[in-house]
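comment on this one:
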Amino acid sequence: MENFERENPQNAQRTASFGAVPPPPAEPPYAAFAAAPGRPPRRRMRRPAALLTTVAVAAAVIGGGTAYSMEQLLGGDGGSSGSVLTASGSNATAKGHVSQVVESVQDSVVEIKATSGSGQATGSGVVITKDGQIVTNNHVVSGADTVKVTFSSGRTAQAEVVGTDADKDLALLKVNGQDNLKPATLGDSDAVGVGDQVVAIGSPEGLSGTVTSGIVSAKNREVKVPKEDGDQNELPSQGSGGGEWPFESGGGRYNGGVQGETTTYKAIQTDASLNPGNSGGPLFNMSGKVIGINSAIFSAGSGDGQASQASAGSVGLGFAIPVNDVKQDLSSLRDGGA
């Protein structure tokens, strides 16, 4: 150690801290790259530049590997690591975004006010023909003396009840004197999957044209509701200031007890926010096609003192009649209903 320190005094401090440092080799490792006789010597690449080059190459390899892996995950062939990969959001298979769906279908949704001597019910509906046929819930118009429809443009018109089906809680209205209305397209509710994104448009609490969105939470939920036959003197309470449409599902009672004669159907469950006044309105998929008619909701502030009025409103439990059931019933409804 002493000899080495005397021969290499400049390393004395490092030797004291880290131990003996071996002497440099007799021939430097870059001797093989020395210039041949008669040629100017090549300048050795400085270590920082070489390090940067190595890092750049390593980064390129990692980057290329990452791109390849993403292509594999996204179903690409991985043939070109230089291709740009994009994602269109959480619903990559959708035909459009919520705003695009709304823009294409909002003119097909109407507000419905049904009036009798005992009061008024507010609901929603969807136009299905250019000449003014409108689908809604039976419980929205059952027992009504007059029915008024308000379109998205703000114009209003009187409607007549063409046919009802209390067993399926469906009704068909007809607005006369209206031409070239924009009908919605009826989709396929059997093709709907749990987790699919959906959009609801209606008139909750009389706020026409209200848009909410969510997903399909479940399918084939059995829902039991009162069976309205159109002969009662009092309209079911809907809309601002009234109670909500009672129903039962899975043994649970919601919005109070279901009284009198009942009917049961299998529904699409959704967490899209629905409130009183959404009844009878359409539930759309992301292609802008109707997949259901909103028919029952649970409001935490209603029925049997379940919660205070301050907490009333949607709690993400909504149900819609599958549109395939609607399509099967249309012919009967046009003939006056069941």
User: Anything to note?
Assistant: The two ends are 108 Å apart (CA to CA).
